[in-house]
Amino acid sequence: MIELIDKGMYLVDGVPCETADIPAEEAKKNTIAYGILQAHNVSGDPARLQLRFDALISHDITYVGIIQQARASGMKRFPVPYALTNCHNSLCAVGGTINEDDHVFGLSAAKKYGGIFVPPMVSVIHSYAREEMAAGGKMILGSDSHTRYGALGTMAVGEGGPELAKQLLNNTWDNVMPEVVMVYLTGKPKKGIGPHDVAIALVGATFESGYANNRVLEFVGPGIAELPIDFRNGIDVMTTETTCLSSIWQTDEITKGWFDTHGRPQDYKELKPGKVAYYDRMIRIDLDKMESMIALPFHPSNAYTIHYFNEHKEELLSGLQAEAEKRYPGLKIDYMSRLRDGGVYATQGFMGGCAGGMFDSIQEAAAILDGKSTGNDYFSLSVYPTSIPVSLELTRIGAAAKLLEAGVIMKPSFCGPCFGAGDTPANNGLSLRHATRNFPNRDGSKPGDGQFASVCLMDALSIAATAANGGKITAATDIDYEFERKPYHFDKGVYDKRVYYGFEKGQADAELILGPNITDWPKMYELSENLLVELAAVIHDPVTTTDELIPSGETSSLRSNPIKLSQFTLSRRVPEYPGRANAIAAIEAERREGKNPRRLVDVLSRVGDASALMSSTQYGSCIFANKPGDGSAREQAASCQKVLGGFANICYEFATKRYRSNCINWGILPFTIDKDAEFNYEAGDCVFVPGIREAVGSGAEDIPAKVIRGNGDVEELLLHIRGLTDDEKAIILEGCLMNYYAAMNKEA
Question: Which end of the chain is more exposed for a tag (fewer CB within 10 A), N or C?
Fold first, then answer.
């Protein structure tokens, strides 16, 4: 189905070739990605990107913090269109009024600074961006990791909030020019194959090896013409799970038709590679050979064909159970109870959000369920259309009625189940979701409280087939159904009646409305001469996700209160972490008051004169993880560590650029160690880094450190900080991005 070619390839007149008459370095300039990136690059150096984006977008988990950062840093207006969407809301009574308080804040900010405000339940973030903001050849920066609009000719990047704050302050997003991977599509998907089947297969083929990590995926080839736009969008949004930096697709008449349908013909732009283009790698996808897919817990890359899964169900479920018990000792987990009548039975289905809530997927799922029943047993199916315009059209064509008649629960445009704030499965339940991720506990369950549920990713079509089969996992390619795809008609009137369009209409004297839970950031201090960090969590999982670093779900209610939210850091993975970090922060507070805490005296005396080091050595907490940062762009995974007094991450490598950038922007030192170095230390051990301020300021990339074990033994450890920009050095030295901007404003 998918072939990875791990070498450079040319595309000559639309045909992949190993050689061409043009040098590779010259032909690289003929990729679509190169043209768009350089059109937005203000550095003057093609190899060193400093990008200004055409538009910004955030949802209500992140926009309060972003605006508070930018406001504290001197922002007076939104310089580009900035849409504030509200699709991660509605956590009901959790937190009292604070969810709606955030929305009131968002609308008041849109009025004051000149923004766009999309009310709750009107559209999920990426649907709105596609429908109203994406444009050919443009770039959008979003505070959600699935900010991907490449199928519409828009290069989009998902980053943490501080990167959006930089844009709001007319600064740049900085990175080296990334490598570009050709994704060459051929063939045509057979009946029953949907976009998630292709996406899961792609993630499964690329994630573990890091094949696409921090690269741009550029989709070309004759197979594109065989895919409707919704199908393309459905693949594109999942490219985030390959850990690629961004994506872009060749556009065509189908793309043009989509913009015409949405009343924006002027935003279409023909995009295609030059006559001869060079790519650093190539992925070949034969759409003819795609099969119905399932991604087993606990990652989208845990991918199998549904046929293979059903043929090897006992073996796979047994292995999955062993993995779950290893992750969560003491939990009662019984995947084998899902086996009966020769199949595997799920307890729940869900399709919705930016990946599964699109018009084409839902209308074909309705065709599969037409005249059938989801049953009255444990299995249930919920559908969340991606926007009210999509809901309206599904109603007008009769698809919504077919779903309701089959027993499907139709719900509003809300991302909740995708991040653990709705439709949480029952304990020991198995949920099938056409959604973006299936990380542990992202479903909303709490292993620390003895609750455990699991999510498998599947395409909407196979979920519908499963629902029609009583919850027995079934490939859509194995059933007969009639389907004639109906065209989509976009009704912008829905948005005109509800969305606040305030770009370039800011009212400087308008009141910014802050509810009682919306608080400013606590004071953060510049980096000291020396650094002492205590390991508060040591995690040796292959990958640590941002959903583990800061759980989603009901914790999101506290998104606008950094201090309260910080107490949930790592709470579902290392429950002891917040308490340890708080205790370390309390000792650092004593040191800052001029006291000599016994803990510091004992540790510092192992590496020098404790009394001499006390005043010049910052003390904070540190997390070690093999490979942290896969998952969401939400910067709370880093900011909560900093609020708790965290000063460093140590790892073999960072899973994503966005998490590393989040750490830097919050003044957390992004240390790495050599891949062959052994890290056999544990919580309570300390790492002393002498001369860290000078090392960061001078750009030193190899930094000697000492580990002081709990028993007093001292060992050498070599740390690295690779490739910091001048701005990143300054941010770390000042203690965080806000301090950096405050210093700049003071100088001005």
Answer: C
Contact 36, 137 (CB under 8 A): yes
CA 280 vs CA 31, 182, 218, 453, 723: distances in Å = 11, 8, 11, 40, 21
Distance CA 454, CA 433 (A): 10
736 contacts: CB under 8 Å, gap ≥ 6:
524, 642, 665, 666, 667
The whole-number average pLDDT for the span 66-74 is 88
- Is the confidence at residue 655, as pLDDT, over 70? yes
Whether the Cβ atoms of residue 465 and residue 439 lie closer than 8 Å to each other: no
pTM of the model as a whole: 0.89
What is the distance between the alpha carbons of residues 456 and 148, in angstroms, rounded to a whole number? 22
pLDDT digits (tens, 9 = 90+) for 730-746: 999 999 988 888 887 66
Whole-number pLDDT of residue 633: 61
Structure tokens at 658: 């966005």
pLDDT for residue 553: 62
* Beta pairing, strands 55-58 & 82-84: parallel
Residue 476 pLDDT greater than 90, yes or no = yes
Mind listing the domains of the chain with CATH numbers? 2-272+279-287 (3.30.499.10), 307-482 (3.30.499.10), 530-747 (3.20.19.10)
% the chain with pLDDT above 70: 97
Higher-scoring residue by pLDDT: 327, 584: 584
Q: Using one digit for the tens of pLDDT, what is the confidence trace for 343-397?
A: 999 999 999 988 999 999 999 999 999 999 998 889 999 999 999 999 999 999 9
Residue 691: which of 679, 675, 678, 702 has the closest Cα? 702
Closest CA to 687 of 721, 711, 716: 716
pLDDT band at 207 (very low <50, low <70, confident <90, very high): very high
CB 251 within 8 A of CB 136: yes
Helices 657-665 & 161-168 angle (0-180, nearest 10): 70
The DSSP string of 406-455 is TT-EE--S--HHHHTSSSPPPTT-EEEEESS---TTTTS--GGGT---EE
Query: In DSSP terms, which residues pair with 716 in a beta bridge?
Result: 706
Cα of 476 vs its chain's centroid, Å = 28
Q: What residues form DSSP beta bridges with 705?
A: 717
Q: How far is CA 254 from the centre of its chain?
A: 28
Helix and strand tally (H, E) in the chain? 28, 34
Token duo for residue 49: 């990107």
The residue behind tokens 């003071």 is 746
Helix axes 359-369, 229-237, angle to 10 degrees: 110
pLDDT digits (tens, 9 = 90+) for 398-408: 999 999 999 99
